[in-house]
Each structure stands twice: as structure tokens, then as C-alpha cells.
Design a protein that fits this description.
Blueprint lengths: L1 E14 L2 E6 L2 E7 L6 H13 L3 E2 L5 E3 L1 H4 L2 E6 L21 H17 L3 E4 L7 E15 L5
């Protein structure tokens, strides 16, 4: 699984003009599910996201996590994170898991985050979405379960 974790002041996602998820301070996480990913990858990614110390403490150092602060998470499924543009200019998506299984693992990631104590909002799987956010910092972290985080 691949994830782009962005520290935000606020974030929202809309489908056909309707807001379907929104948060205040927390993290917006774009999640891509790769062929070969498992429920274990989803659980490990959730644990990593929840524990990432990317929020400032009283001394201005990044020592606090979204979980420490009781902030929220907006999760957006995004198969394009698995795009491969090494050959040519149009990315290929052969590394992305087929949608039925990818939905199961994306939902497993969201549920694992909830079990850890996070409030989780989401977009809609396989829908065209408009994501808006106010990046805080900016702070953006890339995670990839293939790299054994």
C-alpha cells in the first residue's frame, strides 16, 4: 500500500457537488492499494499513520501524532498512486489492485484507524471526487508498505 499523508488544518471531499467527508485539524491520507497487498499491510499502514509524529509539541518540534492530539483523518482511495510513468508519458496502472479487492483493503485500513481511536471520514470509492485541504506546514509524508515501514 502506498499513502501520501498530509498534515492539515482542514480537509473535505465532495462527490457531484455534495460534501461526503470533512475534518478539522488532522491528516488527509491518499491511499493506493497495490497488487499483492494484504489486510496486514492495511493494519500496519493504519498503525504507522496514527503514530506518525508530525505535529508540533509546545517547543515547536514534531513530537506529537494525530492520535496524541485527538485529531481526525480523512482517507481518500487513490489508485493513481500506483501509476508507473517510467516508460512514456502516460502512466500505467498494472501495479494497482483490481477494484473489488482494493475496496476491501481500503476499508480495512479505515477500520484499523478507527480501532486505534481515530475519527475517520472518507470519500467514495471509485467515484470522481474533489478534495480540498489547507495543508499545515506544509508537511507531507510518503509511506509505502513495500519499503517495510
Amino acid at each position: 500500500m502506498r499513502a501520501v499523508v498530509q498534515r492539515v488544518l482542514s480537509a473535505s471531499v465532495a462527490v457531484s457537488g455534495e460534501t461526503v467527508g470533512q475534518i478539522g485539524p488532522g491528516v488527509c491520507v491518499l491511499v493506493g492499494v497495490a497488487t499483492g497487498d494484504t489486510e496486514r499491510d492495511a493494519e500496519r499502514l493504519a498503525s504507522k499513520v496514527a503514530a506518525l509524529r508530525i505535529f508540533d509539541d509546545g517547543e515547536g518540534k514534531m513530537n506529537l501524532s494525530v492520535l496524541d492530539l485527538g485529531y481526525s483523518l480523512l482517507a481518500i482511495s487513490q489508485f493513481t498512486l500506483l501509476g508507473d510513468a517510467r516508460s512514456g508519458n502516460r502512466p500505467g496502472f498494472s501495479q494497482a489492485m483490481e477494484p473489488t479487492l482494493a475496496r476491501v483493503l481500503f476499508e480495512a485500513f479505515c477500520e484499523a484507524c478507527r480501532k486505534l481511536g481515530l475519527t475517520v471520514e472518507t470519500g467514495r470509492f471509485r467515484e470522481h471526487m474533489q478534495v480540498a485541504l489547507v495543508n499545515n506546514g506544509p508537511v507531507t509524508i510518503l509511506l509505502d508498505s513495500e519499503r517495510q515501514f
